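Quick one: structure for this chain?
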Amino acid sequence: MSDTPLMAMAERFLCALPHCQVLQMRVHHVDNQGMTLVLHYSPKIIGNPQTGAIHGGALTTLMDTTCGMATLCVLPAFEVCPTLDLRIDYMHSAKPGLDVYGYAHCYRVTRDVIFTRGMAYQDDPEQPIAQVVGTFMRLGKNVKGGLSFGSSLKERGQ
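Got it. Here's what it folds into:
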């Protein structure tokens, strides 16, 4: 499944998000510097049938999830960190038929808030589809998500 504890935790986290499973998102790479997820191109995520362009909602989900999961890379233990704010600047449409990669990293961690930034791209990271900045609230390690979310991540990893 994975070769690092961080990758295993990221894969479990993504598997616990039903909407990400519907979108067939996968962890592409993770290390202590950041997170890269992949959104596989599918007819299910087309927003414009005439052009085959991916729906903006699918790209927003990719970037919100990538930024939120980047918090795993900087925290010593899992914490539920809901989105406070997310800004996405779309540069151009995604090319039909190609997967989209979302990369994010945390650039500042405070007691209460984690600040992230990243981008969405396809075949060339130097030509991003979108740039993103997000902030995430730290609720602490004792707060659990719905349906025992936090404990399910820990249990599967042991």
